[in-house]
């Protein structure tokens, strides 16, 4: 989805949201990610302006304090950016791929069931189809991707073949690079303001 994401070409509009829209987005995010509640006032401060960015291919992104936080396609689920997930790793369900799947995940490939069911992988029971998940990798500390469950975890364990997770963003894709650049820019701006 974000393999070659470039803001200058992809972004069609951006605007501050009305407070009613901001409240509605915040409520939807907290409903979708209940584990976000303890961090909600830090990540989504009520008084800070929220910017809604519309991109090509019906992608919307949420930015606050010059930081990309969440994105969605069409009216689908919201996904956190990997940078946000690295700061708050427990806000969404996790799966783990084995070492053999890492290079494919880092290339944006679909995550196949064998990479989720072999030794070195980890998959909790009861994750429904259509759930956004953090994709961890054997031997790595932080998530390497975020994806959407194409089958339930129980189906993946039973079938052990086919596409288990469709990636939506991964380390090194266009969205990751844009978020990293924005974070560096915000840090440089904060440092120049403090001088």
TrEMBL record:
Keywords: Cytoplasm. SMART domains: PUA. GO terms for biological process: formation of translation preinitiation complex. InterPro entries: MCT-1/Tma20, Pre-PUA, PUA, PUA-like_sf, Uncharacterised_CHP00451. Its main location: cytoplasm. It is found in: Cytoplasm. PANTHER family: MALIGNANT T-CELL-AMPLIFIED SEQUENCE 1, MCT-1 PROTEIN. Involved in translation. This is Translation machinery-associated protein 20. The lineage of its organism: Eukaryota, Fungi, Fungi incertae sedis, Chytridiomycota, Chytridiomycota incertae sedis.
